[in-house]
Design brief:
The chain has 261 residues and is mainly alpha-helical. The chain contains 11 helices and 2 strands; from the N terminus they run H-H-E-E-H-H-H-H-H-H-H-H-H. The chain has a two-stranded antiparallel ribbon with strand order 1-2. Strand 1 and strand 2 form a beta hairpin. Helix 2 packs antiparallel against helix 4, helix 4 packs parallel to helix 7 and helix 7 packs across helix 8. The chain is globular and about 75 Å long. The two termini are 21 Å apart.
């Protein structure tokens, strides 16, 4: 029965037109961004043009487009639950699979798989983009990078997908799952952190989606004698975000199991 529930989720997600559109748009747009991001840049110039070796953001071509990838993924995972409530399809789902824990598990697996699929699509498109630039592997002039960046990016996409899915399920609104992470992370939390930077600098350390967007950053080396708060980055930022995601997912689990369809 669990296999049947997983197959049901896969067929439902994969046959929705918006899923195919999101994957295609993601692939094309990420490839274009990666191609643009990997353009050689020069820091020194003379009257004849650039001087010295260029710098190529090879790893940046993989990390920079991931927020856009996350938005595409959130469209798909939010529909995973939000559209079912909107059109009353959740009743058909629960009729076919009366045991709510089983269908909930299948949905969670589907959301995680969606995040990983979009990570693979994003990285494949990025690799094609840098290959078209002539850099299928990191060139000698590439800016420093860490292969672990790709793992962090995949974790980021899975966590973002889970947060979008949970919000859409809690509110029963697909648009909430898509819009809130983006608006909160890129606008609301940035303003809040800036306003409270002096009185409560710790606020930047605990905000959810703004922490998520710092997944690709590396820790800053703080010179001695400088007392300045630097918010979490890299794995630490993902750790903060994962706590928020866990809370949202638990709330959605409780709501799904106890709330009327």
């Amino acid at each position: 029965r669990m296999i049947a529930a997983l197959r049901y989720e896969w067929v439902r997600v994969s046959t929705v037109r918006s899923t195919r559109v999101a994957v295609i748009l993601c692939f094309l747009s990420i490839g274009l961004i990666a191609w643009a991001a990997s353009a050689p840049t020069y820091t020194e110039f003379d009257q004849n043009g650039p001087v010295g070796d260029p710098t190529v953001e090879w790893w940046g071509a993989f990390s920079q487009p991931t927020l856009l990838t996350a938005i595409f993924a959130s469209v798909v995972v939010s529909q995973n639950i939000g559209q079912e409530y909107r059109f009353g399809l959740i009743r058909l789902t629960l009729t076919a699979f009366p045991q709510r824990p089983r269908i909930l598990t299948a949905k969670l697996v589907s959301v995680v798989a969606t995040g990983l699929v979009f990570a693979a699509v994003s990285y494949a498109a990025s690799w094609i983009g840098v290959t078209l630039r002539g850099y299928p592997t990191p060139p000698s002039v590439a800016a420093p990078g860490d292969p672990a960046l790709l793992l962090r990016g995949a974790v980021f996409l899975v966590l973002w997908s889970l947060s979008a899915w949970a919000l859409a399920g809690i509110t029963r609104q697909t648009a909430i799952g898509i819009a809130v992470p983006v608006v909160s992370g890129l606008i609301v939390e940035q303003i809040l952190g800036g306003v409270l930077a002096e009185k409560a600098p710790w606020v930047q350390d605990v905000l959810p989606w703004s922490n998520a967007t710092r997944w690709f950053s590396e820790p800053t080396v703080v010179p001695e004698g400088i007392d300045q708060n630097f918010p979490p980055v890299g794995w630490a930022a993902l750790g903060v975000f994962s706590v928020w995601v866990l809370v949202l997912v638990v709330l959605e689990i409780v709501a799904f199991l106890r709330r009327d369809a």
